[in-house]
Structures are given as structure tokens and as C-alpha cells.
Amino acid sequence: MSTLCVPSQVPSVAEDCEQLHKAFSGWGTNEDLIISILGHRNATQRKLIRQVYAETYGEDLLKALDKELTNDFERVVLLWTLDPPERDAYLANEATKKWTSSNQVLVEIACTRSPKELLLAREAYHARFKKSLEEDVAYHTSGDFRKLLVPLVSSYRYSGDEVNLTLAKTEAKLLHEKISEKAYSCDDVIRILTTRSKAQINATLNQYKNEFGNDINKDLKADPKDEFLDILRATVKCLVCPEKYFEKVLRLAINRRGTDEGALTRVVATRAEVDLKIIKDEYHKRNSVPLDRAIAKDTTGDYEKMLLALIGHEEA
Amino acid sequence: MSTLCVPSQVPSVAEDCEQLHKAFSGWGTNEDLIISILGHRNATQRKLIRQVYAETYGEDLLKALDKELTNDFERVVLLWTLDPPERDAYLANEATKKWTSSNQVLVEIACTRSPKELLLAREAYHARFKKSLEEDVAYHTSGDFRKLLVPLVSSYRYSGDEVNLTLAKTEAKLLHEKISEKAYSCDDVIRILTTRSKAQINATLNQYKNEFGNDINKDLKADPKDEFLDILRATVKCLVCPEKYFEKVLRLAINRRGTDEGALTRVVATRAEVDLKIIKDEYHKRNSVPLDRAIAKDTTGDYEKMLLALIGHEEA
User: Fold this and answer.
1) pLDDT digits 0-9 by tens, B258-274
2) Which InterPro entries match (chains A, B) (predicted)?
């Protein structure tokens, strides 16, 4: 479900490195060359490029990119070039340091990645920041948000498909009870959402709908100004239908006055190799405009070109 | 710091398996033979034995042992034979299912293992129980105990030695403040104990002592009947001086009317390959009796022989 286009004949890593080095040399930077290489290599290839580049030129490729590029284009190239676990660690750290109750990046990383991927991100966090992710999240958040976010980022959910239907019924009832009492941050709601496997949560939420008529997220919309409810709904969506969650992030990023480049860049860079194809389809269905056209309309220059390359736009 | 004695010339794995199989054959069981093999092989060797045994005889060695052995001897041999992460998963599951507020096994597993070992135990828990450890802990506990135990078993602490002294001072003060207010289960106390690295916690508790005169565990003794305080003190001990924690578990297991075989078996089986040598020294210092003599006095038969073999008693 990746949108990335890797050419059938990929140049050698050494050649890619040489071309990149050339793109940085002399006056000005050859952005098109950078896009034509990095925008068309998968994670394993990019990792190798970074390694060989450092060995050959004695400089981290990310440092070189940082010196040569600017603004949104720089950010998308840097995020994209990072190894996925390292990228998640980086985004999570950023989200933690400038955390506000409306910031859903931590939920996104904790819930849309596989349990194993989340662990790898936590490992990368240790290596890069000499601290643990949960330690920073616990330190920078408070109240109900802390109560939800710390177990979310600490979870190592079971990833099998087995489902306990009896449990699903009991916990659907329990969720409904607590939501009816507006006890949104009570221990049980948090426990179910932060520890059960995704398959189990999906079964529980299906039961919820069967038994009580509404999607749980509809019932979690009681107070549209309550940011804790927003984050609970994001948690549910990230766990059971990540592609819909990401479609909405893109929709809000594009459809507002002045594009939200931060969100746009993040979604494209983190999902291109995962499920961006499905997200694109969702986007088209929901907005009656293909995602590439919407992006082309809202962005310009090298930033636009890099985004289009990553979302698999034919001409990019 | 292991007490295990592995002979310098170890028979081939096939030979070990054949001998074990022989020990189970015919009328009665040759317990001495079992002890002479399993009581003198390290984790890697035992894992191989289990693997080759299953391939050769079409039966899991643990099943065979389970059929042949009984009572305390069975339990120590089974626990010992399990691969360490699987053993931790098994013990944690047992502790969760029959959890009571005085049960400290979860704290022990969460805090005396390295962060990486705890992760491996969580992985083994998935494989064996088709659920996550934190999910079971959250489900079977409640109140303050849940508030402490879930993040403890979910933690993946940073394991580097770096220490932030400014932070240690701030958090020592914060801990002292909360403990003075008897707010033992407040968010900050839990956050510090469940997320900071062991090195950082050690620095914080040193600051605590320097600044406020007492060991934190002394201040956590305000109410000797409060089981939450017991578990907080166990958490602190397991994090900063596991060998003292285990010495006390052994002391209490041995010095009571009727030995606590459960605790004795668990400590010997889980620590023999880790730090039982240090624990033995602590025990001798604290009780003026060598551990092997104390064990020999309190136990009998094959159980005694197996324990003595694992704690490195010369004649075993």
C-alpha cells in the first residue's frame, strides 16, 4: 500500500551518494537531483545511502541536507530520509517538548504503528535522546492527558488476531456505562484503550455499535470543545481505522486558510511507505478531488515536487 | 555473579538428552541424574537440551519433567529449566491471576530485570498467553496498585549511566514534599519511580538522603500496615539494591515457621545465573549463617539437593 516509486534499475549506493554530493557542490543546490534520488528510494536503500555517504564524505547526510535546504522542503526531505523508528522518535520528542492538549502526534505514533514498530521507536528514542519516551511524555503532560498518553506510548499490545467475544461484550458495556456517566478519563476506559490488542478493541467497538446503536466516537462527541474528548476520538480512530484518521488530518491541513505544512509533511513522510495508497483513495472519495491535485494546488516549488514524488504522482 | 557450576567438560546435548530420557524410564525416576544434568547447565545449554529433547523424543522436556516430578522439587526444576524470559512471563502471569496487594512478584520482575530483559519477558508473554502483560495486570489490579503496577511492567527505561543532577535535586524535593503530605500514590511519585532510568533514580534518592537526612524507604515506613507503602518500598529496593531486596525475601522465606518454598524457589531459580553470589554474601552478612547451611537446615530430599546445586554448594 506504499505510494513510493522505486525505479526498476536502481543505481549503486556509491553512485547515489556521489550524485547527492554533487547536488550539494558549487553555488546553489540541485534540488531536482536530490528529489530524483531520495524521493525514489525505500527505507533500506536510504539507510544504506546515509551509511555510505558518511563513510565516503565524513559527514552525516542529514547534516549536509540541513545545510543545503530550507523551510518545508528541508523538513520533508529530512523526515523522509530518517530511518522510520528514528523518525518516530524525532517526531515524538518534538511533540513532547512543545506539547499542547491539542497535539495528537503522540497518539498517532503510539496507535497507528504496529506494537513492534512502537518498540523500535522507543529504542531509537533511548539512542538519540538518552532518555525514555515515556519519561518525557510523563514529565511534559499532566492530568487526564498524562493518564492516557503515558500508557499509550508505553504499550506493547498483543498483535495476534485472536478475539475474546465474551470480553468484547463485557467491555463494550463497560465503555458505554462510563461514557454515559461522562467518566471519560476513568480507569476502565483508559485501561481498555491502552492495553487491549487492536483486534480485541475492534471487536469491542463493533459490539458497542451493535448493542448501543452508535459508533463510540459519536458518543465521544458530547462536548465539541473538550480537548480530552478530541484525543480520545483520535485514539479510537488511530487504533481501528488509521487511514480515515490520516485522511482527516490531510483534509484539515489542506482545506484551511493557509496550508498546515507541518501536518501535510508528517503524514506524507510517515505513511508513504505504509498505507498512503489507501489514504489517497479515502481522500479522493471524501473530497471528490484526488490528493495529488489538492497538494499541487496548495503547495509550490521543490516542496510540492517532493510531496508529489512521495505520493506517487506519475510526473514527479 | 552466577552461582551455577557448569563442569569444564560438558557432555554433548544429545548425550544429556539421552541421560534425561533414561532418568525418566522404568519404575521410579532418577532424580540425582536429573539434578546432575539440569542443575549444572546454563541457560543456553538448557535451551538447546529442551530443543533437542523435543526433536528426539517428540515430547517437550517440561512435560516429561511435569509427569515425573512432584511438589517443590518439580517446581524448582521446571522454573529453572524454562528460558529466563519465558520463566518471567510464567511467573508474572501466575502473580497476575492470583494477585493480592501483598504480592510483590510483579514489582520484582518489572524492576530487577534490565529494561531489555523486561521487554523479552513481555514478548514471551505474548507468545505464551496470547495477551499482553500490561493488559492482564491492568485487568486484575485496581486503585493505587494498578496506578503503580501498570506503568512499572510497561516501562522501557533508558539504561545508560548518564545522570542529570539538577533534575535529581528537583525530583528529590518533589518526592520529599509528596511523602511529607502522605500523597504516596500521587502522579509525581508514580511518574518518577516508573519512568526514570535506574541511574537517575539512584541519583535522586542519594539527593533525597543528603538533603532530607533519611533513606526514602525510612520515610515510606510511616504506616507499617499500609500495603501500598510496602509495595512502594519494594519498588525502590528492587530498582536501586536488588541484592538487598532478594536477601530479605530469602530471610523471610527461611526464618518463618514453615519455610516459604514458593519464595525460596523463585529467588534461587531466577537469580542463580544473575547475582545469587552477591545475594549469598548479603545473606551471610545479615544472618551470620551461610545461605547453603540455612537452606540445608530448612529443606530436605531432592528439593534441597537441587537448591544447593543451584546456589553453588560444593558437594551438590
Assistant:
1) 899 999 999 999 999 99
2) Annexin, Annexin_repeat, Annexin_repeat_CS, Annexin_sf, AnnexinD_plant
Provide ipTM, 2 decimals.
Answer: 0.88
The per-residue pLDDT for B232 is 97
Question: With an 8 Å Cβ cutoff, are B187 and A139 in contact?
Answer: no
Give me the pLDDT at residue A211, please: 97
Q: Under DSSP, is residue B218 helix (H, G, I), strand (E, B) or coil?
A: helix
- Asked if B169 and B221 sit in the same domain, the reply is yes
A157 vs B151: CB contact, 8 Å cut-off? no
CB-CB neighbors (< 8 A) of A194 in chain B:
134, 138
A259 and A296 belong to one structural domain = yes
Angle among Cα B293, B294, B295 to the nearest 5 degrees reads: 90
Q: Are residues A135 and A183 in the same domain?
A: no
pLDDT value for A17: 97
Q: Would the CB atoms of A158 and B195 count as touching at under 8 Å?
A: no
Q: Which residues of chain B neighbour A191 with C-beta distances below 8 Å?
A: 138-139, 146, 150
Residue A314: predicted pLDDT: 64
Contacts of A160 in chain B (CB under 8 A): 126, 130
Residue B153 has pLDDT above 50, yes or no: yes
Task: Give a yes or no: residue B1 inside a domain.
Answer: no
Over residues A102-116, mean pLDDT: 96
**Does B251 share its domain with B235?**
no
CA distance to partner chain B, nearest, from residue A36 (Å): 38
Amino acid at residue number A175:
L
Residue at A141 is within a domain: yes
Residue with C-alpha cell 538447546? B48
A130:B191 CB<8 A: no
Residue A162 has pLDDT above 70, yes or no: yes
Q: Which residue has the cell 552461582?
A: B3
Question: Which residue, A94, A127, A154, sits at the end of a domain?
Answer: A154
Quote the CA–CA distance of B122 and B116 in Å, as a whole number: 10
- Which of A163, A164, A174, A195 to mutate to probe the B interface, most B CBs <10 Å? A195
Nearest-Cα residue of chain B relative to residue A150: B151
Count up the domains in chain A and report the number: 4
Q: Tell if the CB–CB gap between B156 and A157 is shorter than 8 Å.
A: no
Q: Which residue of B has its CA nearest to A139?
A: B191
Q: Are residues B171 and B233 in the same domain?
A: yes
Which cell numbers hold the place of A157? Answer: 499490545
| Gyration radius of chain A's alpha carbons | 21
- Listed ranges A3-12, B95-104, B188-197; the one with the highest mean pLDDT: B188-197
The answer on pLDDT for A1 being more than 90 is: no
User: What is the rounded average pLDDT of the residues A289-309?
Assistant: 96
Within a domain: B76: no
Same domain as B186, residue B150 = no
Q: Which residues of A are annotated binding-site positions for Ca(2+)?
A: 24, 26, 28, 68, 254, 256, 258, 296, 298-299, 304
- Whether residue B253 sits in one domain with residue B192: no
- Residue A244 CA: distances (Å) to CA of A92, A237, A276, A281, A292: 21, 7, 11, 10, 17
In sequence order, what are the residues at sequence separation of 6 or more whose Cβ sits closer than 8 angstroms to the Cβ of residue A273?
Answer: A2, A4, A42, A43, A84
Q: Which of B151, B159, B197 sits opposite A151 (nearest CB)?
A: B151
Q: What distances in angstroms separate CA B190 from CA A172, A244, B148, one per listed residue?
A: 29, 35, 6
Using a CB-CB cut-off of 8 Å, the residues of chain A touching B159 are 126
What's the pLDDT at B316?
A: 45
- Return mean pLDDT, chain B: 95
The domain that holds B197 is classified in CATH as 1.10.220.10
Domain span at B288: 242-310
Q: What is the pLDDT of residue A316?
A: 44
Q: How confident is the model at residue B223 (pLDDT cuts 50, 70, 90)?
A: confident
- Enter the pTM of the model: 0.92
In a domain, B5, yes or no: no
